[in-house]
Amino acid sequence: MSRSNVRLNPLECAQQALHWIHRDALTQDDIAALNQDVLDCFREYVNPGFLEYRKSVTTGCDYGAVEWCASGPNTLIDTQGNEYLDCLGGYGIFNVGHRNPNVIAAVERQLGRQPLHSQELLDPLRGMLAKTLAALTPGDLKYSFFSNSGTESVEAALKLAKAYQSPRGKSTFIAASGAFHGKSLGALSATGKSAFRRPFMPLLPGFYHVPFGDINTLRKQVQQCQKTGDDVAAIILEPIQGEGGVILPPEDYLPAVRALCDEVGALLILDEVQTGMGRTGRMFACEHYGVQPDILCLAKALGGGVMPIGATVATEEVFSVLFENPFLHTTTFGGNPLACAAALATVNELLTKNLPEQAATQGAFLLQGLQQLASEFPQLIIEARGLGLLQAIEFRKNKIGYAFAKALFQRHVLVAGTLNNAKSVRIEPPLTITREQCIRVLKEAKEALKELSDAMSDENNMKEYAAERK
Ligand SMILES: Cc1ncc(COP(=O)(O)O)c(C=O)c1O
């Protein structure tokens, strides 16, 4: 029965939830009640559609793995006490590990002092984080606008580019097919996947998409825009496409894009929401290619896996369009003291623990192992690829990738597909993952692949998989 008409008591609902927040240990009865309650809440009040997509929920939604706490930097526990090795990293937010004690300590100190700011006096941490990012980011990037998510950081970048370029008569944007920049109307206009875009058409005018990694097509599109007077305000790219399936461009692509931007007076916006903060083995992925953007988008891991925060960092030349009227683009919560405390402690962790370097070392080991598996199971896998600890295995069919993620989940290793490319399963653990844990991932992955391979050669399944591979 749908409960949409049942009268709920809001006080009871809130108090019931607070009761769980204040609990430490759970009895068997608690676990059953909590799991049922959470499933009901998702089905009736969040979105029943989610339950269909979670590999942690069995067919028919009769059991769901409900997460309870982080048990270590790279592991989490569900209400039943099952521990999962996190190779998903919350889609790239746990670079410094789960519940990083130094990030928590900074946030707790600030929580005790002043969680949110007055909006009128100058909030110290916002200033200090902006200065820290100016020092951390490449090239002349200097001024920061803070928000609460990756989408908002992209939205701010697009608006900044428009404000800078409209007096110069340039208003169009070029993005890449397969790109993911978020799902607000502005960010979605840059995102390159039809399934996410189609229901919301028409999106912002003046956005063109070209294949990622192909400089000739990009150049032609820029020239085409010039011919029709739709001069390009900015080119927006992820240095490595994350949700597109972890797609690395040719080595000379980004430098050529930078040169093209300079040639025609377009801005280069790099979206490092997922690739930034050490993920690919350098602090920012653009550093692998020696390229400096005019505007850099950050979020996800910037908050240390503790607080949400987004940052749009720009050169003084570009950002100065907001000097005269800083209220042109604002947000109440962006850059709040708790988020800034988390981000400052995160930068400190990344630098003092050399986490980008660790990502490079463990990433190279893991990737070598995954590529070995790809050569052992060519009937299942097209390739394994990545940089640092942003990696993906591309399967021959969506369904095989999904079955692999599910088989790993059953072995208590958490991975997931990428949003724009369902055939590719991402491996994106915290940068704190140990060598032993990498070895375990490879061992469990091999067993999962063997199981899938055996299932495929089973006569009943054979037809289904063969049909799918067309
Ligand atoms: C490159 C990139 N940009 C933007 C976003 C959107 O970030 P958020 O989900 O925090 O709004 C994502 C999210 O996956 C992303 O990977």
UniProtKB/TrEMBL annotation:
Keyword Transferase among UniProt keywords: yes
Single GO molecular function: putrescine--2-oxoglutarate transaminase activity
Superkingdom as given in the UniProt entry: Bacteria
One Pfam family hit: Aminotran_3
GO biological process, one term: putrescine catabolic process
Keyword annotations of the record: Aminotransferase, Coiled coil, Pyridoxal phosphate, Transferase
InterPro entries reported in the protein's UniProt record: Aminotrans_3 (IPR005814), Aminotrans_3_PPA_site (IPR049704), Class-III_PLP-dep_AT (IPR050103), Putrescine_aminotransferase (IPR017747), PyrdxlP-dep_Trfase (IPR015424), PyrdxlP-dep_Trfase_major (IPR015421), PyrdxlP-dep_Trfase_small (IPR015422)
Coiled coil: 435-462
Cofactor(s) the protein needs: pyridoxal 5'-phosphate
Family per similarity comment: Belongs to the class-III pyridoxal-phosphate-dependent aminotransferase family.
Protein name: Diamine aminotransferase
Protein source organism: Samsonia erythrinae
Higher taxonomy: Bacteria, Pseudomonadati, Pseudomonadota, Gammaproteobacteria, Enterobacterales
